[in-house]
């Protein structure tokens, strides 16, 4: 069976749920993020580097780190770089340790960064969260934005919870535990609903 498109999945969920259809009408079509030139591994590296720093600082450090390891991110390139070189690029000791752990787990096969991996969503999350510095939320964003999986429901994402409250007129916003079963009617396209919930928050915050 051919995989349904993002637009097709959106249309199918909108046909099931009036509140979601209204949200789609307000937000308009959504698209996948462009693919990273260095693939899923590159996205994971960027995710680790970007943690707890500003977007501008992250971009600068990402650029310097990429230059340090040969221009693009590979497990082999990270593994071959010295700690001193990575620290000079602007990485903290903790982030150097995280990148080393990620590289090691990719090289030994624990983490599969093949974009066509046949591992289940939960197995991808289980393996990724063994990596230092990668939690469930980061793993779920990887599934949604990099592997383009359509049935991810990131209940730990505050914007998803707040966006659900806005779209479905729920007050207060559901907790992660409360949101979990609320995604069931949208299977197997919960990622689409999550993306639109995030967009609902961005729209609400717009001046």
Can you give me a brief rundown of this structure?
It is an enzyme of class 3 (hydrolase). It catalyses: Hydrolysis of alkylated DNA, releasing 3-methyladenine, 3-methylguanine, 7-methylguanine and 7-methyladenine. The chain contains twelve helices and no strands.
Q: Topology of this structure?
A:
Layout: H1 6-16, H2 18-27, H3 39-50, H4 55-68, H5 75-80, H6 83-88, H7 93-107, H8 121-128, H9 136-146, H10 158-168, H11 176-182, H12 190-205
Helix pairs in contact: 1-2, 2-12, 3-7, 8-9, 10-12
Keywords: DNA damage, DNA repair
Family: Belongs to the alkylbase DNA glycosidase AlkA family.
Domain HhH-GPD: 49-199
Structure description:
Keywords: DNA damage, DNA repair. GO terms for molecular function: alkylated DNA binding; DNA-3-methyladenine glycosylase activity; DNA-7-methylguanine glycosylase activity. Residues 49-199 form the HhH-GPD domain. It comes from Asanoa ferruginea. This protein has 207 residues and is mainly alpha-helical. The chain has 2 domains: 6-32 and 152-205, Endonuclease Iii, domain 2; 39-146, Hypothetical protein, domain 2 (Endonuclease III, domain 1). It has helices at 6-16, 18-27, 39-50, 55-68, 75-80, 83-88, 93-107, 121-128, 136-146, 158-168, 176-182, 190-205. Helix 3 (39-50) packs antiparallel against helix 7. The model has no long low-confidence stretch (mean pLDDT 95).
């Amino acid at each position: 069976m051919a995989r349904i498109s993002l637009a097709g999945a959106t249309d199918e969920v909108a046909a099931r749920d009036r509140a979601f259809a209204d949200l789609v009408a307000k937000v308009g079509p959504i698209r996948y993020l462009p693919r990273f030139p260095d693939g899923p591994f590159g996205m994971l590296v960027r995710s680790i580097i970007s943690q707890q720093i500003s977007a501008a600082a992250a971009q600068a450090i990402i650029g310097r780190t990429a230059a340090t390891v040969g221009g693009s991110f590979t497990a082999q390139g990270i593994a071959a770089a010295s700690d001193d070189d990575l620290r000079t690029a602007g990485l903290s000791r903790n982030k150097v340790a995280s990148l080393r752990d990620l590289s090691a787990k990719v090289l030994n096969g624990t983490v599969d960064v093949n974009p066509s991996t046949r591992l289940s969503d939960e197995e991808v999350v289980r393996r990724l969260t063994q990596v230092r510095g990668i939690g469930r939320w980061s793993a779920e964003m990887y599934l949604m934005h990099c592997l383009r999986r359509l049935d991810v429901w990131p209940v730990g994402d505050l914007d998803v919870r707040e966006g659900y409250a806005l779209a479905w007129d729920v007050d207060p916003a559901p907790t992660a535990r409360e949101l979990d079963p609320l995604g069931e009617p949208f299977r197997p396209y919960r990622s689409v609903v999550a993306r639109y919930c995030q967009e609902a928050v961005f729209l609400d915050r717009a001046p």
